[in-house]
Amino acid sequence: MEIKVKMANTTAKDTDHIVKFNGDNWHSYSFGIQIMFDKNRLSSLVDGTNALPTQVVNADGVVTNLEEIEIWKKQKDVDAKTIIYATVL
Length: 89
What we know:
The protein has 89 residues and is mainly alpha-helical. The protein has helices spanning 12-15, 26-39, 43-46, 66-86. It has one domain. It is built from four helices and no strands. The protein starts with 11 loop residues before the first helix and ends with a helix. 10% of the residues are buried.
């Protein structure tokens, strides 16, 4: 079974309208970044309801869901980190 990964392609241009967090503007920053998380379907990752999948290990000690874990890391974790990095001074 082949699983296709849809990457969000978030760039600095996509986040340049968000007020950059400077330590004093939490309300403006958090509103803007929450909209970006919603737009990119990342809110459940950020609030913890869509956590990194737990490893499933078979009787031979082999992790059987590595592909699912890697997809989560590549598609969701990296996208969220990109948005955060692009919006902090």
